[in-house]
Amino acid sequence: MAEHPRSRRENDRMGERKMNAKDLIKMNNEKREELTKENEAYYSDILLYIRTHLTLSEQQSEELLMELLDHLLEGQKEGKRAEDIFGSDPKGYCDEMIAQIPKEDRKNNFTFILFLMIQFAGWIALTRGALELIIGFFTEINNTVFLGTAVVKSMINFLVLYGVVIGIFSWLKNSIYKKNSKIKDFFVVFLLMCTAVTVFVLFSKIIPNFGYAIEVGWLFYLISGIVLLLLTVLINKKARITK
Amino acid sequence: MSLRSQLLKGILEGCILTIISKEDVYGYELSVKLQKFGLDDVSEGSIYPILLRLQKDKYIVGTMRDSPHGPKRKYYSLTDEGEEALKEFRKEWQSIQGPVERMIEWGRER
Predict the structure, then answer these.
(1) Fewer CB atoms inside 10 Å of the end CB: C or N, chain A?
(2) Ranges for the Transcription regulator PadR N-terminal domain (chain B) (predicted)?
């Protein structure tokens, strides 16, 4: 998340450097080990439930999760159970809080998706370059690429991947406080994903070749893969996406 | 939400603003203070949804800071808007408290 450079420096001087979400997650992992088994089970459900709500501000969510954990640890010292502190309806309790947590900045979301797309394309290009280099030793490869087709295919590729990820998250989100139908739900999600992938494969078979035809060899893939991945490192430095 | 629990929430909100106006506190500290005043029927966890709403309404701000003994905590402090809201709460409370007490007294006299 972008921070104002001056305020950051001021914070450093005052010994109050802002803890970003990544620091908080790390600290959370360490502190959670101090919980009793029962409290850990209760708390982990809260954690998972709030974290799988992807539209929430990550920073705000992690700060809240840390507060709840600190409170629980203090209570535990006095022999309290998580249920005594947070009540017997964790889902209702979480929903009440989730309604109040600010949403993640839209600009952040857009940058993040763009970042993922470039990274995804980078890895695909790198892998393809490496594969073609190896396979090229044994057989002749058809190097003709139709630009239009390539663009459409990668877009669909990305959309399917995006859909699969969203699907997994919403399954997780909905299954945390459900006791019975976890497995059934999983199969529904699994089937949906199989369908998505099948549709994708069929689609890519029927997309006609269009756009400029260019000859592209393994070297081009390798170089563009490396360039794209370097680009993600640069973007990350500037926008501090993964902090 | 029932009227009863809405009323209680409003009162709890006012109490929380009052404590924060005295000094910056973090969540656990706040719940200890509420209990010290005798509000121990309030389940401890219920302060967090309220703290979130007060932040959303910009009545308080939370900042992660080192605590005297131990790790960083999220301390809450009152904003100018929060100061106004607290004044409003005091006014409202005073306009209810007297009449309600008198009515209860009156109800007891048979």
Answers:
(1) C
(2) 16-88
Same-domain pairing of A71 and A161: no
Domain boundary residue, one of A55, A79, A98: A98
Domain of A61 in residue numbering reads as 5-98
Q: Is the domain of A164 the same as that of A223? A: yes
pLDDT tens digits, A149-200: 888 888 888 888 888 888 888 888 888 888 766 777 778 878 888 888 888 8
Q: Cβ contact (<8 Å) for B44 and A71?
A: yes
Q: What does the pLDDT look like over B15-40, one tens digit per residue?
A: 999 999 999 999 999 999 999 998 87
Minimal-distance CA residue of chain A relative to B71: A70
Q: Which long-range contacts (CB under 8 A, 24 or more apart) does A102-109 make?
A: A102/A56, A102/A57, A102/A60, A102/B56, A103/A55, A103/A56, A103/A57, A104/A54, A104/A55, A104/A56, A104/A57, A104/A58, A105/A1, A105/A57, A108/A1
Residues of chain B with C-beta less than 8 angstroms from the C-beta of A69? none
Of A16, A75, A100, the CB nearest to B65: A16
What does pLDDT average to over chain A? 84
User: Which residue in B44, B55, B58, B67 has the most chain A C-beta atoms within 10 A of its own C-beta, making it the best mutation to test that interface?
Assistant: B44
